[in-house]
Amino acid sequence: MKLQNDLFLRAITGEVVERPPVWLMRQAGRTLPNYRKIRASVPDFKTLVESPELIVEATVEPVEVLGVDAAIIFSDILVIPEAMGLPYELLEKRGPRFPRTIKTQADVRGLRTGVDAAAQLAHTYESVRLTKQRLQGRVPLIGFAGAPWTIMAYMVEGSGSKTFASAKEMLFKSPELAHQLLDKITQATIAYLKEKIIAGVDVIQLFDSWAGILSPHQYHQFAMPYLKEICDHIQEVPVTVFSKGAWFALKEIGALNCQAIGLDWNTTPQFARAQLGNEKVLQGNLDPCQLFDTLDNIEKATLSMLKEFGTKHIANLGHGVYPETPVEAIHCFVDTVKRFRY
Amino acid sequence: MKLQNDLFLRAITGEVVERPPVWLMRQAGRTLPNYRKIRASVPDFKTLVESPELIVEATVEPVEVLGVDAAIIFSDILVIPEAMGLPYELLEKRGPRFPRTIKTQADVRGLRTGVDAAAQLAHTYESVRLTKQRLQGRVPLIGFAGAPWTIMAYMVEGSGSKTFASAKEMLFKSPELAHQLLDKITQATIAYLKEKIIAGVDVIQLFDSWAGILSPHQYHQFAMPYLKEICDHIQEVPVTVFSKGAWFALKEIGALNCQAIGLDWNTTPQFARAQLGNEKVLQGNLDPCQLFDTLDNIEKATLSMLKEFGTKHIANLGHGVYPETPVEAIHCFVDTVKRFRY
Asked: Which pTM value belongs to this model?
């Protein structure tokens, strides 16, 4: 089906466009009124992530309410560990927890990978298909996955953490075991993304949420090779890589076989361009806290961001929308971008 | 009293020395056996911070057990808000909590500052005097304070936070109020540090622990002017500024009237030198997680760090020692530095 609004796809492939497309990480979430109803209709977040009809509702709502230029399929990066055989719980306000974690070679050996892992996630592909039908070509649909290091961090640590000391301990003390685990995650992720593409997603985004806790040396050793492998294997659609906090690796990230690079709000477009050159499209990077500001200030800050980035830019925040963000602030951000012209 | 080991003072003032001095952030803490006894002898952490005799024990133990080249007075950055009139609690494993927080102009107006605030902390100056006596000139004594932005972040947010969204909201929405608060913190901090210097500390370190959550623009506006004011007013002893995560501000930090700059483990000495030039002494930056590695690997990583930094370096970790670090690992780190020669 031909897209009615293909601005996002034109921009991410480097075409000259009239204005930057705009969407927000975590745009389908607690800030929107209908989402709260959807969330209240199920006992927990995981039930929501496994219910295709509800996923369609949550995914399409920001397109209809906010008028963003792309939808992103409502899901969770931790469906991959679960598909590999490591189930998790999501505790309200406390985040994810894995009752079992990965410690030994036997633990890694016991994990599913590749198409066997990907086959566990039929409900996600089904929700992609249903969402595409429901979108009726209005905007493109983004699919996402966690980057292998971030997924490994959760599988070894067992929960979120300020330091991810156990996961990093494995990198230091058992680098071969870490590489085996990272490789299995990578193969599962590639198979999963390929199924999502077959089901209809138009763009892939990889989230390396815990990039910033590794040293440049460790990031080079344990994160980059697997990001590269995924990018090299996903050639069907454009790919965005967002490694939060990995400013020190931007030069290497710029050499990946991908179309766009996400930036957090610490990283200026000037710094990024100096590291990356002018080829890649940049995505980001308004501080999500800025959306707690007055509407006047949000408009000014958004315009100033748009001017600093210039062309080859996809407007977004530098991280996911915070849950308590007023919906008028999000409207102001989106509308400011949509009124802007290069 | 003449120092027996003045390596740290010679290094921080830029002298050519035979090897880098070494100490560890949070060296007096849970990793050491006697500290655990001291901690168990009081009902809570705050009682410890207010007991000069126990502070002496905790401060001197790492010098005697680990053989580090500097002591750092055992204290807490949050004594400043309390001295200004905003008391806090420290909950075991949950961190600090302020029952009252700063929200309005009246809240800021009600705070003590300058010498009035500093006068509340007589027990700290007493513990500096007692520690100096007990050290008998073996090594220099470091005194520290939180940087104004970090202190403000706690005073407004009321606790630790992943995002410090309330504190940042004040920067966005009420910049004048934020500047008034930052100024009061700054004046209290200067008076406090001057008293500590009179009591005998040989070096000052400023910790900007939450630097990394601000954008470059906000850091420039709300953090740098106050760091500058403190550095300009503390000329009696050398000053180290450690702004964790503020890689984007290193050029500006390098222009401060201070002798040394702390680096976290994300920041290579090559990057820092490119930003800062060669004048300042650099301090850091082994990943504290590296101390969970094997002793062989710790030695290799420490040596490789020492070579990368070259001269004008004070060996340290890139953050505080993690509580569960094995004491043999800390010994290995310290001893490796002490055997090294340029």
From this structure: 0.96
